[in-house]
Write a structure and sequence with these properties.
Blueprint: E1 3-5, E2 27-30, H1 55-69, E3 74-77, H2 79-84, H3 86-94, E4 98-101, H4 114-132, E5 138-139, H5 152-159, E6 164-165, E7 187-190, E8 196-199, E9 204-207, E10 210-213, H6 217-222, H7 225-234, H8 259-266, H9 272-283, H10 288-294, E11 302-304
Parallel strand pairs: 2-3, 3-4, 5-6, 6-8, 7-11
Antiparallel strand pairs: 1-11, 7-8, 9-10
The structure holds zinc ion (ZN).
Zinc ion (ZN) is lined by residues 29, 31, 35, 102, 106, 142.
């Protein structure tokens, strides 16, 4: 079990208040409509190039919204996207957004051996940094698949140059989640080799007995705007996780999904683009790097693995 040392201020994120305006951390996982996880109907990576490509159009629509609102975001991209659409990634970076890694081929961490994880992530980090000409220092696991069984991944990420991670889902998640293992707000993580990472967990809202995400993916599309707005007011610097496909009503529908998966993948697509526009207008947004620079990390909890 990891051991946590909490400063006297407790676990609450230590963002300064006062003159600085607090706003949600806008992150976008850069992948296409067919990058759903654990779905037998989707062919393997060798066939992705034969599927309809919607990532450029969808990403450009998100970029336009961000530009309209003057917001810098952080894009976690697949290494596959960097290798397949290098000009798209260059466009995102040229507009001032930060670029992190979201694995190479969207493989769940807990389905990999450490060596396979290292190889896939190294190739992705190299492809991304080669494309944008900058080091890659931020990471998010596909499907928040960092679990209590795969904590070894932190050390390997650190060895690959990752200094900030956004893979912790401090509750239950269909593809991962860390339950109550870690603090719910930003914290420092010390690996067994002494290396430290900065962790930004996904922000969750308490609904009855459930901890649920509300600022990303299907949750953002499904919940009424008023509820999301209320949760954001209670968590002004909440972590978000959008995908370009979340705003693409015309995307092909994958056949054979369970009713629940279908709902999660496609509920609320109509109007989601306008919903994001309204969200960004009302709450603004900041990139991961901007948020990190505002945190007093010395006062943040330290978790030792
Ligand atoms: Zn993903």
């Amino acid at each position: 079990m990891p051991e946590t040392q909490s400063p006297s201020s407790g676990f609450s994120p230590t963002l300064p208040t006062g003159a600085l305006v607090r706003s949600p951390i806008i992150t976008i996982d850069l992948e296409d409509w067919f990058h759903l996880l654990e779905c037998d109907a989707i062919p393997g990576p060798e066939a992705w190039g034969t599927l309809e490509s919607r990532i450029e159009r969808n990403t450009n629509r998100v970029l336009a919204l961000l530009a309209n609102h003057g917001i810098r975001a952080t894009f976690f991209t697949l290494g596959w996207v960097a290798e397949t659409y290098p000009s798209l990634l260059k466009t995102v970076a040229s507009q001032g957004h930060e670029i992190g890694c979201h694995s190479g081929l969207h493989t769940l961490i807990h389905q990999q051996t450490p060596e396979a994880f290292r190889m896939e992530t190294r190739r992705a980090v190299d492809a991304i940094s080669g494309c944008i000409g900058l080091p890659v220092t931020a990471y998010r696991a596909p499907g928040f698949s960092l679990t209590s069984q795969s904590l070894w991944a932190f050390e390997l990420l650190g060895e690959l140059g990752i200094t900030t991670d956004c893979s912790v889902f401090p509750g239950r998640h269909a593809h991962g989640g860390t339950g109550g293992l870690f603090p719910p707000g930003p914290f420092k993580l010390e690996c067994r080799n002494g290396m430290q990472l900065r962790e930004f967990p996904m922000t969750l809202a308490q609904v009855g007995p459930l901890d649920i995400a509300f600022a990303g993916g299907g949750y953002f599309r499904f919940f009424p705007y008023a509820m999301i707005a209320r949760w954001i007011r209670a968590n002004p610097d909440a972590m978000t996780y959008f995908h370009p496909r979340d705003f693409d009503e015309g995307q092909p529908r994958i056949q054979g999904l369970s009713a629940l998966r279908k709902f999660k993948a496609y509920a609320g697509l109509k109007g989601a683009h306008q919903k994001l526009d309204r969200f960004l207008h009302e709450f603004g947004g900041q990139s991961l790097g901007e948020a990190s620079a505002r945190i007093d990390w010395d006062q943040s909890p330290l978790v030792r693995l």
